[in-house]
Amino acid sequence: MPHAPSVPPPRERSVTIVAQDPTIRVDGEILLAKINIPAETLGPGPVGYRVEVIDFDATTDTLYTPAPRVNPDKWSKLGGDALVSDPEFHRHNVYALVMKTLSRFEFALGRRINWGFDCHQLKVAPHAFSEANAFYSDQLNALLFGYFPGGNGKPVFTCLSHDVVVHETTHALIDGLRERYREPSSSDQAAFHEGFADVVALLSVFSLPAVIERTIDRSRGDAPLSTKLLTRDALRQSMIFGLAEQVGTELSDDLDVVRGSPLRQSLRDIDPSPEHYQTEEEFVEAHRRGELLVAAMLTAFVDMWSRRLVALVRDRQRVDRSRVIEEGADIAECLLTSAIRALDYSPPVDVTFGDYLSALLTADREIRPSDTRYQLRSSVLDAFREFGIEPASGTEDGYWKPAPEDLDYSRTHFDAMRRDRDEVFHFIWENRAKLGLHPEAFTRVETVRPCMRVGADGFVLNETVCEYVQILEPLASELKALGMSKPKDMPDAKKLRLFGGGALIFDEYGHLKYHVYNPLRSVERQQQRLDFLWESGALRGDSPARLSISRMHLRRATQSIKRAEQEW
Amino acid sequence: MAAKPSDVRIRMYNVGFGDCFLLTFRYKDKKKTERHVLVDFGSTAAPMRRESQMGETAEDIRRITGGRLDAVVVTHRHADHISGFTPRANGKGPGDVIASIAKDAVIVQPWTEDPDLPKEAVKGRGGAPSGKKAFSALHARSLESMHSVAKAIVSRVQRHEFDDADVEDNSEENGEAAAEARANRPLVGRLGIGKGLTGKLGFLGETNLKNLPAVKNLQSMGRAHEWLSYGMKTALSGTVLPGVKVHVLGPPTIEEYPQVKAYAKDSDQYWKLQAAATKVSAELTVEKLFPDAPSVQAEDLPKSVRWFVRKVRTAQAQQLMELVRIVDSTLNNTSLILMFEIGGKLLLFPGDAQIENWAYALEHAKNKTAMRKLLRATDLYKVGHHGSLNATPKPLWEMFKKKPKIVTLLSTRPGKHGSTTSHTEVPRTTLRDELDAHSNFHTTENCGKNKTSPLFDEIVVKFGR
Question: What pLDDT does residue B3 have?
């Protein structure tokens, strides 16, 4: 008998999740959605190769034990209310969203992504404690989700909020990709973590057609929509109010105390004005500054969506509702992928919003040379400029300049450079002058990552992305020799840490395409950073503290603003 | 009676970690009239190496005022400023003494203490708060929620079992007796923190409890009450204290502070939910979230998760610590900031106002230029919040042009608030050194040294013609 050809196991599986959060209902039923996540053989928890759900509740000192085996089709046959009262579903819901976010990042970046700690599995506690907060903790290697009694007395579970779970997972992923972004730096860097996590969370939610469908006027059923509803302003209004339409009770706002209302703030409360970013003190605080990044990205999203729909209308006055939804979800997906790819093209230290803008434009052009369908790059550039953020490249088009042509490749082996940090360091060493490295600083290649990115049109881009960092630790009394001045009242014996570093992007032939860097030698940038950190009190202690996500979330929720520059 | 006082004697009482100041304005008339103003009376920790002196302090106040206070200023509701007003069941406590001598006094407090403040903000179109004092009502409600959070934290700490994270769980040993002990433990158990952090959590939590007996005693004493906000007129000016002008530099109302008003609704929502969440954690027997779901209690944890469980417990405690710090700051920022102006001399009493409260007077108020001019000429400064790092804004200190002659009064006790490791100790060393070097510095830490009274320190400020 001939052997029957073996069927390879599926690489993906479809799972049910709460689409937005349990307050969003359709005809009284909680809005659910299906998403595709990597298939794997799960252990009870669930526990997989990247995520371990441990359902420990510190408030009641209870460990909920998972079922030994769960039928993967079980959830799709139950209604939303049955699901949200089942802790097993909570565990699988949060697992699915973490894995979906991880897989998005891995698709966008074209490789496996490590967590920012020395462990393969991210722990997730879906009911960690009775508290209106959720956060990523690198010290616990975990995401912790709180729960609290809602306005109607029923418990509100942050682990069932799609955007909250994606937001926290994004913090964990940024930490794995750009560990130094939690070092004390400019207000932009402190804001970037929170702002970027909001961007990924919101675009992740909007990439679900079921959610987009909720935002569009439903008063006329499935009838084609008038173009009056598809202008930039009309779409903005729909997005703000459409998702909350169902809810007239306080329950709809309860999760906003955890997520911070980024949607409302970015599309309604913050008007596009350069003053916010450039001069207003209110927006120096990290969580407020992050809202500007969200505002710029969502403005770009709405612009792209509106422009696409107007292009579809042409001579007609109406557009099919399903087409509007489909385009919105596709654009959200496209923009999200580009937003994630930009991380590889961002400097690994002292990132600014301007750096990120140039990174996004450049990374997107590399994988999607043609941008006629959505005009993503022009929309993003215009939106960022509306909010006063100019590309750090210094070029009018915003793209990073290519790497120098005259680098020396003669003594390095590219095949080794695709995986070996020492070989990359060899390359950096041979070209240290041309790359602008500081000769006395400690230099370390932190990562070497070959990647294969695939564009929507099937275009494949092979790159190797590496990050290196340079660290110098002068005393305050030695700043003058570096061309800097000591901030007022700083003790001479104060130990300091200055950073420089860059991302090296090599093409498939081993030639350096881009060197995206913030040089340690940049006196102006180092002075600005030092002055800012001293005045804000970040350098008060012996060891400046790294960004704490939990503390930042608490400050955001309570709107407490620290004026550390006025402290003793 | 003379048109204005000739001097003021300020008695700074050594109450430990707290504030108590008696201002006696003396007039050179035939009767040698004196007007007495008590500013705060509270403590959360006795002076170093001494027992509580609150009873003695009250009696001294009674004696020196001749049994009559003209005004009682309560800058804000923290225990270290109002605990002394708590009456006792036998009617002979410090709070009873003060009530008995304050029968004709004007009681002055910040607007947040007004019992007639609406409890609920009327909602206008779009659900936004509407009407007079709508936002202030939201803020007042937030403060009540914050008290609930503090109360829940204190309750949780009192039930805490110390959990040394380095000690391995040895529940596999000891067999039946250990199993029975585990079964009898309350559900709300270990916080996962040691004695040090537990102590700080408890101290700060208790500071932020709403001391209802003290609050009620204050409401019932005196002949008149005022609840003040920035720029308001007060009976202290001219009526209670002839020849004295009293400026109110804080706190602002929410309505007049756009930067805070914008978030009043969100803040109220957050604290309401957080109060409900921490209340759950404080209950002695709190029900499990999912009573029917299979579970194990903490004593029977599998080895594979014990590390994580310990860490989550500690994370929870750290969250509570951060919460109570925010509550503490917010309540500090309800402080009355009063400037007494007499004969060209300016005496500044800001309670525990922190940078955020000061920001209104210094940066946002319409008449900030005039206020800054006033502040520059300060002759006496009661150091804010017992010398903490953020209650004497550096720009404010740099503004004072009468250094080193400016008199500074610091009522404090080290070792109770903040930590040297994180450079948040109270009093803050850098501030204390600055006060010592560049002002006529008086601190209650020196009471009882070099034959001075252990009960108080005293200075006299003379006024020109």
Answer: 84
CB A373 within 8 A of CB A338: no
How far is it, in rounded angstroms, from Cα B80 to Cα A76? 58
Nearest CA in chain B to A144: B312
Nearest CA to B78 among B19, B125, B163? B19
List B residues 192-231 in contact with A (Cβ-Cβ < 8 A).
Answer: 192
Q: A559 to chain B: which residues are within 8 Å by CB?
A: 263, 266-267
Confidence of residue B160 (pLDDT cuts 50, 70, 90): low
Q: How many domains does chain B have?
A: 1
Nearest CA in chain B to A66: B294
Residues of chain B numbered 77-106 and touching chain A (CB < 8 Å): none
What is the tens place of the pLDDT at every residue in B333-347?
A: 899 999 999 989 999
The pLDDT tens digits for A320-338 are: 888 888 899 999 999 999 9
Q: Is B275 domain-assigned?
A: yes
Stretches where chain A sits below pLDDT 50 are 244-252
What SS3 state is found at B153?
Answer: helix
Question: Is pLDDT at B189 greater than 60 in this prediction?
Answer: no
B322 at A interface, C-beta within 8 A: yes
User: Which of chain B's residues have a Cβ under 8 Å away from the Cβ of A83?
Assistant: none
Report d(CA A141, CA A171) in Å as an integer: 12
Cβ separation of A62 and B326 shorter than 8 Å? no
**Residue B463 in domain:** no
Helix (H, G, I), strand (E, B) or coil at B297: strand
Q: Do A58 and B290 touch (CB under 8 A)?
A: no
> How far A556 CA lies from chain B's nearest CA (Å)?
10
| B190 has a chain A CB within 8 A of its CB | yes
- pLDDT tens readout for residues B306-358: 889 989 988 988 888 888 888 988 899 899 999 999 989 999 999 999 988 89
Q: What range defines the domain where residue B191 resides? A: 143-206+267-328
pLDDT (tens digit per residue) in A516-537 = 999 999 999 999 999 988 888 7
Q: Which amino acid is at B187?
A: L
Asked if residues B384 and B392 have their Cβ atoms less than 8 Å apart, the reply is: yes
pTM of the model: 0.89
Residue B99: is its pLDDT beyond 50? yes
Over range B434-452, report the average pLDDT: 92
Query: Which member of A63, A65, A257 has the closest CB to residue B269?
Result: A257
Q: Out of A254, A261, A282, whose CB is closest to B273?
A: A254
Burial (CB count <10 Å: 0-12, 13-18, 19+), residue A409: middle
Is B183's pLDDT higher than 60? no
Residue B31 lies in a domain: no
CB atoms near residue B220 (< 10 Å) = 10
CB contact residues (below 8 A), chain B span 349-388, against chain A: 355-356, 359
- The half-sphere exposure of A40 on its side-chain side, counting CA atoms within 13 A, is 17
Contact yes or no for B232/B326 (Cβ under 8 A): no
Q: With helix as H, strand as E and coil as C, how does B397-459 read?
A: HHHCCCCCCCEEEECCCCCCCCCCCCCCCCCCHHHHHHHHHHCEEEEHHHCCCCCCCCCEEEE
Helix axes B195-207, B134-158, angle to 10 degrees: 140
- ipTM field: 0.89
Q: Is A132 on the interface with B (CB under 8 A)?
A: yes
Which residues of A356-511 form beta strands (DSSP E)?
A: 442-454, 460-472, 498-506
Is the pLDDT assigned to residue B176 strictly greater than 90? no
User: Average pLDDT in the B61-67 region?
Assistant: 96
Residue B167 lies in a domain: yes
